[in-house]
Design a protein that fits this description.
- This protein is mainly β.
- It is 6% helix and 20% strand.
- It has one helix spanning 162-173; strands spanning 22-25, 28-31, 36-39, 46-49, 56-57, 68-72, 79-80, 93-95, 102-103, 116-118, 125-126, 147-148, 188-189.
- It is built from 1 helix and 13 strands; from the N terminus they run ββββββββββββαβ.
Length: 196
């Protein structure tokens, strides 16, 4: 679940050393095992390297961190939860590592300067609005994707590589994309019974 922590000027979250559930490293909040990054303070600036122990970026973990200019994600990462990087307007590119299988809803929503994202082979699921209202200019959907909800790329006005994307969707999802609809409201899945 998302933590209700959003303060523009917050630069660190501190945790008592006696707390058995959470820990803080350099002001960033994790679960005690440091497998889940729970909160990156919105007031921190510059680039950030997510520790190699982290397998999951929590819901809204980086929400509103508009001073974040670059983020390096670890190879062991598997899941990017809803709204994880939403509103990170300073991000310009993100390389998502090979182990990530799921990008949840609104994960990069409102990242207006995010022009480039590398999606890994092995990614299977992209939920609704994952890259909506972002600055993407092109995107390649890997053949491993089996579910992509509607609105994944809604309001991406700079997205120019529409036809190649439609072709990639057809190949990965096995459906024909109506050219008149563009890409902004597309959704498809191999298994209609999959849950969000």
């Amino acid at each position: 679940d998302a933590l209700p922590i959003y303060c523009d000027n917050l630069t660190q979250v501190l945790v008592s050393g006696e707390n058995p559930y959470f820990r803080s490293v350099d002001g960033v909040l994790y679960n005690n095992a440091m497998t889940n990054l729970r909160k990156y303070p919105a007031g921190k600036s510059g680039s950030f390297t997510v520790p190699g122990t982290v397998t999951e970026i929590g819901s809204q973990a980086f929400y509103g961190s508009d001073l974040l200019t670059a983020v390096s994600l670890p190879t062991g990462l598997t899941y990017i939860r809803s709204g994880a990087f939403s509103g990170c307007t300073g991000l310009t590119q993100v390389n998502i590592p090979q182990g990530v299988t799921t990008i949840s809803d609104s994960a990069f929503y409102g990242c207006t300067d995010l022009a480039s994202v590398t999606l890994p082979h092995g990614l299977t699921t992209i939920y609704s609005g994952a890259f909506a209202d972002s600055g993407l200019t092109e995107i390649t959907v890997p053949a491993s994707v089996t579910r992509m909800d509607g609105g994944v790329f809604s309001d991406c006005s700079a997205l120019t590589q529409r036809q190649p994307l439609a072709q990639a969707i057809e190949e990965s999802c096995g459906v024909e994309v109506a050219r008149t609809r563009g890409i902004h409201s597309l959704g498809c899945r191999h298994n209609a019974d999959m849950d969000n």
